[in-house]
Amino acid sequence: MDLKQTRKTYFTDNNQEPKLIINEILVNLSKLKQKTIYCQLISNIVAIPTAKKRFNEAYPDANLNWKKFYQLPFKVTTDARTRQFQYKILNRILYTNKALFKWSIVEIAKCAFCNIHEETVVHVFYNCTNTQFFWKEVSISMSENLSSNTRTFKRN
């Protein structure tokens, strides 16, 4: 809901106390603090983050727990750069060659890893054959390390 669409009515009662009605909620202005005004004004405003909106438009059947996605960077690492990287991916502001080419910053929009397809976040992290190989190797390495750590832990 846009603030312009919010119904506002100003009036005073017999006591001459200024009052305001915002979306059928009576607010006594004489006893009001800034935080209360802010909370009243934004209480009915719900804005979907742009990345979430775009993702839902592209994949309408996907039912994702967005709260988990937005909390993940804070649970996974304390490193600020890694959190920033995750934030950029989540909010679709990680600039790939496709966007950089559009802005005339790079000469080609092709993927830096396979040099075949247009470089997008989805392509780089999911579709690119070279990065698929990388993720497979990371997965194998992590599985081996986790299993060896588990065996070491059980011996002690």
Would you write up a description of this structure?
By secondary structure, the chain is mostly helical. It has two domains: 3-42, no CATH class; 50-155, no CATH class. 51% of the residues lie in helices and 9% in strands. Helix 3 (66-76) runs antiparallel to helix 4 (80-90). The longest helix is centred in the last third of the chain and has 27 residues, at 129-155. Mean pLDDT is 77; it is low at 1-10.
Structural class designation: mainly alpha
The succession of helices and strands, N to C, reads: EEEHHHHHHH
Sheet-strand content, in percent, reads 5-15%
Determine the oligomeric state from the structure: single chain
Number of strands: 3
Give the helix tally: 7
Low-confidence stretches: 1-10
Give the helix proportion (percent range): 40-55%
Largest sheet: 3 strands, antiparallel
pLDDT averaged residue by residue: 77
Shape: elongated
Radius of gyration, whole Å? 25 Å
